[in-house]
Amino acid sequence: MIHSILQILAFQILFLAVYDFFLKKETFFNLNRTYLLIAPVLGFVLPFVSLSFLQQNIPQEYIFQLPAVVIGAGTAEEVASGNTFWLPSLIDIWLFGICISALLFSWKFFKIAKLKSSGTVEIFQNFKLVLLPKTNTAFSFFNTIFLGENISEEYKSSIIAHEKIHIEQRHSLDLLFFEMVRIVFWFNPMVYLFQNRIATLHEFIADAKAVLQKDKKQYYQNLLSEVFQTEKISFINTFFNQSLIKKRIVMLQKSKSRKTAQLKYILLLPAICCMLIYTACSNDPKVEATQATSQSDSEVMTKINELAEAIMKKGTMTPEEEKALKLLTTEAQPDDKVYTSVQEYLDETKDQNEADVPFAVIEKVPTYPGCSGDNEAMKKCMSQSIAMFVNDNFNTNLGKQLELSGKQRISVQFKIDKTGKIVNVRARAAKPELETEAIRVVKLLPQMQPGEQKGEKVGVLYSLPIIFEVVE
Predict the structure, then answer these.
(1) Which of 122, 136, 406, 439 has the fewest Cβ atoms nearer than 10 Å?
(2) What is the DSSP string of 401-429?
(3) What digits encode the pLDDT tens for the residues 35-56?
(4) How far apart are CA 424 and CA 286, in angstroms?
(5) pTM
(6) Helix H segments across 331-374?
(7) What does the domain layout of the chain look like in residue ranges?
(8) 325 near 317, Cβ under 8 Å?
(9) What is the pLDDT of residues 438-464, one digit of tens each?
């Protein structure tokens, strides 16, 4: 999840950089508007796009992850039933932020409604004009223009002409779109920056069209003559915003961009291609690094080279050869059986089905002794039973013996083979002693009833997180 969020931020930063460095100063306002609306959406979507022709299809093992087992935080019954103390998760924080953002959004609407009720409404053919008493406010929202009564009649016509452009162009829809995105992705600073850019662009568009109806010199004077109050609402089009006045005047004086400058928008294509290549590569299975041998001409390397040449010359391998190659390339574990020859391994595994079935599609999941019911019931029973078993058998004295403190995380993987036995147990933790203890406990699990697929017994891989809380 964190990786995806970082990718989204990186992609949106790249899109915004392209706009700021290459497109912002051009007078292709409608193209820029389209870019600013599409770019953040692409930033959200591209991290989750995975093109098959950019990836190498590598077979992956399917592992079912059991709920985390917490040791040392309470009794086994409490852990199995999930009655541990509550800590907010990332989802909880995200949902809380959405609620706060939605409340702020509602407050902004309330402020607009309050302003409308306090003013005098005049209805024209294509818009409504709300005259606000004792204020210099000037802004528009959808088809309504809000205008302060303190604004002189000389400037009202220019302001109305400007705000009518916002209404005709439906700029309020753009700003509301970003408001909705801000509510859901309130934590993403790029959404606020994109909204700021498009609000500025709206003013450029309205100015460019308004000066066609008014004298440009007089329009400048209107911009500079007074400092108006501005409602601080992110989804309205304000006429006088002090931070924007200089930019608007500079853009009004700028010559129309040449047609050839539109070629800058082609920069979007290589940017998207780079992002797609990155996501494709980052989704590839990670290959564990191995240490290079210092004696490249050793006997083992010579044999490996000879084997590689033989495989390349032959072009294909028989099932027996594939099994033998798998035995030679699989990392041995401390308690694995030692074979005196490859043939012994082939004879023992001759009748075994090597293909494990993905847990999500298996017809009948492995069953813990005493569990019954449908697949969902047996999954829940399996999780609770394993949690109870690990809590009962894990040596919690290791915390004091190793002088540990806080939470110690142990990742365990194991397989329930087609005979129901627990095999291929592996563990990873900060301390080797914790790994050894986790492997010992998991190997003590009782023999299960194996999973079934199409009437045949199959093996299923499991992942079991263990959280050992050391109570001082």
Answers:
(1) 406
(2) HTT--EEEEEEEEEEE-TTS-EEEEEEE-
(3) 999 989 988 888 877 665 554 4
(4) 20
(5) 0.54
(6) 342-348
(7) 2-58+89-119+151-277, 359-470
(8) yes
(9) 999 999 999 999 888 778 888 888 888
